[in-house]
Amino acid sequence: MTTATLDAVPLCAALGRLLLEAPDAATDPEAAREYVRLFLNPQGAPCPPWQSVWEEDPGARRLLGPAHHGALGWYREFGFAPNLDSEPADHIGLLLLFYAMLLDRETPPAQVAAFEKQHLAWVPRFAAALQQQARTDVMREAAEVLGELFPGA
Amino acid sequence: MSLTRRNLFRLSGAAGLLGAANPLSAFDQFFRAADPTLAASTKVTTCCGICSPACGLQATVQDGVVRFIEGLPNDAHGEGHLCGKGAAGAQFLYDPDRLKYPMRRTNPKKGFGEDPGWERISWEQALDTIAAKMKETVDAYGTESLLFVTLPSPDLWARFMNAMGVVNRIDHIDVCFQTDRIVQRYTTGGKTWCNDFENSKYILLFGWDLVAKAKVVYANGIVKARGNGAKVVHFSPTYTTTSRMASEWHNINPGTDLAVALAMIQVILSEQLYNKEFVDNFTNFAQYESQIRAHFAQYSPAWAAGISGVPAADIQRIAREFAASGGGIVPAHKKTLCANYMNATQLVHAISILNMLAGTIDRPGGRYFPRTYSVPGVDAVYPPPAYPPKSGRRVDGRDKLPLVQETDTGLFSTLADGMLNKFPDMIKFAFWNAYTILAFPNPKTMEQAMAKVDFTVVMDFIPTDTVTMADIVLPSAMYLETSDVVVRDYNAKYPQAVARAAVATPIFETRTAGYVAIELGKRLCPDYFKTPDGAWINPNTLLDEKVKRAGLGTNFADFRAKGIVENRAAFTPRTSFATGDANNKCQIYVPQFAARGAEALPLWHPKREMPTEHYPLYYLTFIPGIHKRNTTQNNRILNEIMPTNAAILNPALAARLNIREGQMVLVRSRVGQIGLPAHLSETVRPDAVMVAHGFGHQSRLLGAAGGRGVRDGDLVPEASIDDFVAAGNYGGASCIMDAVCSVEPLS
Q1: Domains and CATH numbers, chain A
Q2: Which residue in A134, B216, B219, B666 has the fewest CB atoms around it within 10 Å?
Q3: What is B40-87+478-510+538-569's CATH number, 3.40.1190.20, 3.50.50.60, 3.40.50.720, 3.30.200.210?
């Protein structure tokens, strides 16, 4: 897990946004297809961006699992809710944005560490999968940066 | 932090995301201020959508997410219980592989090995593209070039297909209950799902493993029947859960149930054991007595014993006991052994006759007709302009079977042959709604047929194999996200209706078939999707109107607040049966069948495939109770319980062939072969191999089910409509388990 400082705020925010926003197929079809292939592919996305899908127990992997409710609880505790009604709260982009906000507010380290433990422990595995599967420079870079931010245990 | 400048620069440069004055501007974009109070969990009444009884359930919901599902105590169907599939409902809803957004294929090459190059598009783009392609297709090739593989529901969806004049709509009913539907229409007046097991004194089951099949309403019924002292006799070539619960189990030769049923009729008639009061007053027996007696005289217990392997003395005894019980019932249902051989139509006719001879049609202890609320469909609420005639050729050849043609369904069994051989290149546009090719006999030929279609739309909620062949994919909402009125029609001695409520907030961009119907209707046939005042039909207003007209509440919200509405009126047995008989009687002899080139009385026909020198074993398939056909294998909970299938062999057969438990074996039929591990069990006959249906989804498509197990259908020969006509298969029985095979060990 990262020993994050304020330096991580812009990176986490940028990564959060990058992973949340599907590129416009009209202006950048290659990026749009890559986004679908990695995260949404009906043929089986290799990098599902939701924490609930990365549970250790394969039988517990699902959308909107306990991680979704846990994330909602964190957001709520700080007086926030996601703006995206149809997106699970444990989407990696939302988690990274919220994490950036925690760091930016200079939240007590114990609280930040608790959030990391509950909601970011899976990110190294996600980053590794993204690094392996990405085909565009942007996604390769994102995976690399994410991997360096969250190097794992 | 060891990030290099290169990383920072590239990410920033490529995405333009860094360097903003406020690095947290994205946070403000994706989050809003909210009340910090924890959302309370609530219990919402709705009903299951896994199978047709739609057991009532309560969902515990928090923040729009279903946390837990349990049975609804006052519901007539589940009586507070759910089967494993129903209890695992939230896992269907939140399957990580769920289709999430409309997609468009960018790689024109189709096939399981091809990457379709999916591109996310908006619903507007998807619907515009589909509508344009349908119009272009109809203009160039006529409506016969459209294929809709879908059930005719919801009613808005049926209206769209009717408005477009779709002639080739096909669903799975032929591999399900079609034969019974055709036969019941003319023998008792209509298909019914209601069996009064709890008041029955004698239950004869031909093949149907209804206890394990996990329709809670039936399993409860059998348990109650046994508790009340009923005798249950089970004919089945495998020893199933139902066999264990039965009073007697008879290891009948596969596909020979008809012979036993015919002989039982012969015994009951020749020994005058039938219920004279019912038969004389409410059937056409007297009018056709001489033909009926002469016909069945040929089917003696000794004759049936030679075919079925069931001793003649047992056939005779069971027939006598059944008739003397004064309250016997022989249910018939769908795909579990008795319904899917070439002689299934004759079997359900014989079953219907046995019920008539027992005198229990719409009587205590028998098959009865549901007392239900009448809920109007969209055509009753908003009468449409006249629909265009459905003209054009039937790709499945259904029109060659007049009784099937009347039912307005289609034939899964003959679709591939029609697309590849009878009418090659006729189908240019296909819309698949929630069906996978695993549902077809010999799916390989269906793959070939699909590959020939110019443009394919698939609407589903998970990425089935069929999705791989699509040009446009539409993500479907599922039952926990939709609202409807559901009437009870399995345990329905008095009317009961349950509100199906959308308990979960829809996720991503899933939509219903009703939404697609309205939106395509606006683009292609707008006059059919307007109310009398010229506004577009609104599904919520339509639902309110249905509730009001059915007398269930002032609107859907009112009905939903009640959860269940019922009217405990007394059950009055029916004395008039709308079979087409001039005197409104049940029909043992069915003149309408004869008038359509079919058999007025059921004749013995063997099943299609019989053991040969090369394929000396019966091939038996079954649907395990924990799964629903081919649609639940990706559910992580159900997958954990049963992740794959095996070749189930009797230990004696295995010993003879030197096959050990768990060893890989090759099972072959005349159309294909499958390799899978052996599982040895005394529950299967030594002359048979049994394989569970529903497995063998192609790899990569589904996270849990993809690439696990084999397709049972790969060994089942598909059929042509000519085969059906030649075999006297006038009800279009699907033959979906009609195969023989060999088995050998793989080193």
Answers
A1: 14-149 (1.10.3480.10)
A2: B666
A3: 3.30.200.210
